[in-house]
Design a protein that fits this description.
This protein folds into two domains: 81 residues, no CATH class; 151 residues, Carbonic anhydrase (Beta-carbonic Anhydrase, Chain A), CATH 3.40.1050. Helix 3 crosses helix 4. The chain is 41% helix and 15% strand. The termini are far apart. It is of the alpha/beta class. Bound molecules: zinc ion.
């Protein structure tokens, strides 16, 4: 696509930098005559923040408009992360006894919008944050992982939060009923009951799917929606205990 050409050109140029691991910032700093080093910029808290500090300058504006996150950038960020104390001492079980199901939309990352720490919650993300048969199969697998790691189980209740959101890409998929029916593993004629364009109703629907399929004690399911414009979440279904059922699928 023509509009991607500038980004490709910049990435290509970055592969042969004269010096330093971050040619984009180095180039930008040189353009501006700026003396800040790359390592200092990274310490500020990441490449994108450093770029944003200068976005009113036209050379940086150009760089920002053509910038895409590349792998070396993430490797550099990881090097900082790997030295963080907060990653130590974590176990495979989530420290918060929390699981979140959310959409893959980049604006609704539960770690960001819910302030979750690393290790605090198990997070499943799919298109729409929906409870599909595939989601249930994943949960069934996770229950086996949990059963294999009982030594690090934490006491207390468990919570499963289903987080849907406004302006979801599900709206764009509504015109592909066959694909959505495949996704939910239902007939296209049944799709209406999934409420794919109405997050208030879809999150209630998915809470009901959980309540129908998962059973056991000390486990609560809730349904919330996130507003991508305000950044706020709204509780649609407060934490609701699973029924014990005849045979637990946890
Ligand atoms: Zn979405």
């Amino acid at each position: 696509m023509p509009h991607r050409t500038p980004a490709r050109r910049i990435r290509g140029r970055r592969r042969h930098p004269p010096t330093g691991p971050t040619p984009r910032l180095t180039d930008a700093s040189a353009d501006l005559g700026n003396r800040i080093s790359h390592s200092a910029a990274e310490r500020i808290s990441g490449t994108s923040i450093a770029v944003n500090r200068w976005h009113h300058h036209s050379p940086i504006q150009d760089a920002r408009e053509t910038y895409t996150t590349d792998v070396p950038t993430l490797i550099r960020r990881n090097a900082q992360f790997a030295t963080a104390e907060s990653r130590h001492g974590l176990v495979i079980n989530p420290t918060g006894n929390m699981m979140v199901v959310a959409c893959v939309d980049p604006r609704v990352d539960p770690a960001h919008v819910l302030g979750l720490d690393n290790g605090e919650a198990a997070i499943l993300r799919n298109v729409g944050g929906r409870i599909t048969p595939a989601t249930l199969r994943t949960m069934a697998l996770l229950s086996k992982v949990g059963a294999a790691n009982t030594a690090t189980h934490r006491p207390g209740d468990w919570n499963l939060m289903i987080l849907h959101h406004t302006d979801c890409g599900m709206n764009d998929l509504a015109s592909f009923p066959d694909a959505l029916a495949d996704y939910f593993e239902i007939a296209p004629s049944e799709l209406e009951r999934k409420h794919v364009t109405d997050p208030r109703r879809s999150v209630r629907t998915d809470v009901d799917v959980i309540l129908e399929n998962l059973h056991g004690p000390a486990f609560f399911v809730s349904g919330l929606i996130y507003d991508v414009d305000t950044g706020q979440i709204e509780t649609i279904v407060p934490p609701t205990p699973l029924t014990l059922g005849e045979a637990s699928t946890r």
